[in-house]
Each structure stands twice: as structure tokens, then as C-alpha cells.
Amino acid sequence: MGHGWEGAVLKLFRAKDFTFTVTGAERLTEHFARVRFTDGGMLKVTGVHPTMWVRVWFANAGRPHQRGYTLVDPDPEAGTFNLDFAMHDGPACEWALAAEAGETIEATVQGSAFTAPDPLPPRMFVFGDAASLPAINSLLAAMPDVPATIWFETAHDDDSRLLVLDAGLHRLNLVPRKEAGGHLVTEARTALPGLIGDPREAYAWVACDFKSTRGLTSLLRKDLGVPKHRVNAMAYWR
Ligand SMILES: Cc1cc2nc3c(=O)[nH]c(=O)nc-3n(C[C@H](O)[C@H](O)[C@H](O)COP(=O)(O)OP(=O)(O)OC[C@H]3O[C@@H](n4cnc5c(N)ncnc54)[C@H](O)[C@@H]3O)c2cc1C
């Protein structure tokens, strides 16, 4: 499958292409499916960083359909990793549910990066949902001494089950998805002013749907005065 104009643009950014091979698949919960892969040599070339993600090329009615997925348990020595798919209607999820050992899929690495906040914040503020759950686990593991408050938007009761939290360090607020994500922004607008402290020392990590990510970024930067370089925000879906 060619990668169309998106693939051509990525080439201009020196993107790297790899072929992954499925080694197995399992259902982790009712709403999460895991697919295990060998990496086609990727991890030795790219290295690994927290919240690392790849652009996987799924087919959609014969056309290339590129979607971001986060590496879970990447092992550069073994050349293996997993992808955990939060279930909803869509070509990526359909592919994951049907994936069988031996089949291959193409992926491009471009745009994934991570810079730890310097200085470390007294507390991190994290906003996400099932799509960013693998990235949240990776983020929290990368900063094991930083307390964090996590607002986790849920569409199903068991969405947060795979979060790996440290009870002494992490506070979890479960926020049911309502008003197309608007409810999460309202909750943050109520809670954050009392928690944020000195905005110059704050650090927020945001990976929700497009609308909530935009609303939360605006709240943090414009209303609460958190500097741009202390807000790491990216929409994970729309
Ligand atoms: C950097 C990055 C890392 C990501 N990592 C992961 C990951 O590790 N695991 C993961 O599950 N997702 C992850 N995502 C999100 C994933 O790429 C999107 O959810 C993507 O839209 C799924 O593609 P699809 O082909 O299944 O559905 P699409 O064709 O994009 O959408 C089909 C329908 O599903 C809806 N939809 C799409 N995503 C969601 C969702 N998450 N929840 C509810 N409805 C949705 C759309 O609005 C649309 O109506 C990541 C995204 C980014 C940008």
C-alpha cells in the first residue's frame, strides 16, 4: 500500500519507515486489545523515549489511513513492543481485533519526542483518556519521584483499569465523558486554580480529544498563566 500525500509530506521531514510483524494478540479488558510486534529493526535505529509513538498505516477501503499509537513495553534488545488499542468504531481498532501472528503492517516514525520538564514541577497535572492511557503510564514511569494529579476521562466504567499508579504519589480523578469532552474542561476549570500554585513552576501534560485538548490548553496558558514550555499538549483523536 502506498502512503499517499501524507507519506510524501512525512518523507520531507526525514521520517523513517519500518515494517512491524505481529507475534500475537490478546484482549486485555472488554475495551482494550493488545497486539504484540517485532519492530523490523526500529528501536535500535530510533532508541526509546517516554510516551514514544509511531504512525501506523492501516488500510481503510483500500486507502492509506495513518494513526498514532504508543509503544508499550518497548525492548530495543529484543526488538519488540506492544500496542494497546482502546476500542471504538474505526479502521485501526478493526485491524487490531483481527490481527494474527505473522501478518505485517507498515509504520512511520516522525514527530515523537519527549523532554522532561526542567526544573521538575512540585506536582504534575495530567489530562487524558483511554487513547492516552499507554502514554500516561509511560509518562508517570518516566518521572517516578514527581507527584501527579490525573484527570482521566472515561467512556466506560473499566477504562482506567490498566492505569499503573503509585498510591503514595498519584491522585486519580475519574471524569465521565459528557458534553463531547466539555465536562472535563469544566472540571479542570473548577479544580485547577486552587491547585496550580506558582504557574511558572507548574507542568501540565494533556492528551485528550481535539476539543478538550484545545480547551484545557487555553485554560492552562491563557487563564492560569502557565508558560508555553510547561504545557505539553497534543490531541490524540477527534
Ligand atoms: C501521539 C498519539 C498516540 C496515540 N496512542 C494511542 C494508543 O496507544 N492507543 C489508542 O487506543 N489510541 C491512541 N491514539 C489515538 C488513536 O490514534 C485515535 O483514536 C485514532 O483515531 C484511532 O483510529 P481509528 O482508525 O480506529 O478511528 P478513526 O477512523 O480515526 O475514527 C473513527 C470514529 O471513531 C471515533 N474515535 C476515534 N478515536 C476515538 C477514541 N479514542 N475514543 C472514542 N472515539 C474515537 C472518531 O471520532 C470517529 O467517529 C494516539 C493518538 C496520538 C496522536
Total of helices: 6
- Strand runs, count: 11
Give the percentage of residues in beta strands. Answer: 25-35%
Radius of gyration computed on alpha carbons:
18 Å
Low-confidence stretches: none
CATH class type of the largest domain: Alpha Beta
- What is the first-to-last residue Cα distance? 25 Å
- Helix and strand content put the structural class at alpha/beta
The CATH topology annotation of the largest domain reads as Rossmann fold
CATH superfamily of the largest domain: Nucleotide-binding domain of ferredoxin-NADP reductase (FNR) module
Overall pLDDT: 95
Strand line-up of the largest beta sheet: 1-2-5-4-3-6
Characterize the biggest β-sheet.
Answer: 6 strands, antiparallel, barrel
Shape: globular
- Total domain modules: 2
Using the 3D structure, state the CATH architecture of the largest domain. 3-Layer(aba) Sandwich
List SSEs in N-to-C order. Answer: HEEHEEEHEEHEEHEHE
- Helical fraction: 25-40%
Bound molecules: flavin-adenine dinucleotide
